[in-house]
């Protein structure tokens, strides 16, 4: 029996029946697609949450420290002269050790940092250079005094504007034969003196080079 269309007060025609069923199917498919989309999104979020929850979040493994003595030995053989191997003692680790160029001067530079704390200290050996190299690194800062450490006289530098010198607020420098040695950073003067004392024998050997 044909379906009665209330609005028309008569049975619907075959065309109207087909149109009604087609529209019903369209709405069903549309509703099903939307539900599937929501379900897929929820499933994706759940998977991401599980992955984040199970991934271990431990402390990153620190990169190995450069082997300063081994690198210095190779560099000494190449340069034909002693090369610095400083030691700052417990609590300090070497973060970088390389030959870098600053203002036309090649320098064997080591960067030391305190484990788990702020602060740094660089020890640099400028090859075949003079005091002008120190002025370049310290933005023209002049020596304010001298200090003797293990029989070696070091010039003391106290930059008035550390923000203009890469946070360097204290430095020690001395000539060493053809080279110049600079200890600088934001560490305490006592720490800089310790680093300077640790290279005493090498500085004395350099001073003997004509």
Automatic annotation (TrEMBL):
Residue ranges of the TM segments: 34-55
UniProt keyword terms in alphabetical order: Membrane, Transmembrane, Transmembrane helix
Pfam families per UniProt: DUF4245 (PF14030)
Protein name: Amino acid transporter
Organism annotation: Microbacterium testaceum (Aureobacterium testaceum)
Origin organism lineage: Bacteria, Bacillati, Actinomycetota, Actinomycetes, Micrococcales
